[in-house]
Amino acid sequence: MTRGQTRNNQHKSKAKLSQTPQKDIKQDGIDVEFSEETADLEDKESQQRSRAADQRAQQHDHS
After folding, report:
1. For 1-18, how does the pLDDT look when each residue is reduced to its tens digit (9 = 90+)?
2. At 17, phi and psi to the nearest 5?
């Protein structure tokens, strides 16, 4: 027998990991929690860059 064909591997479960149901997935495009109270200067600059990039993407889509 070659590697992977031994009888020892037969007891392993072939079950896949469970997936999140589609109804529980938020579709807003934002996947990071953010707290204004705990934000530092870098967080706020990052948000500004993100908003600017979103605006550029929307302008690109409409042109």
Report:
1. 566 666 666 666 666 777
2. -70, 145
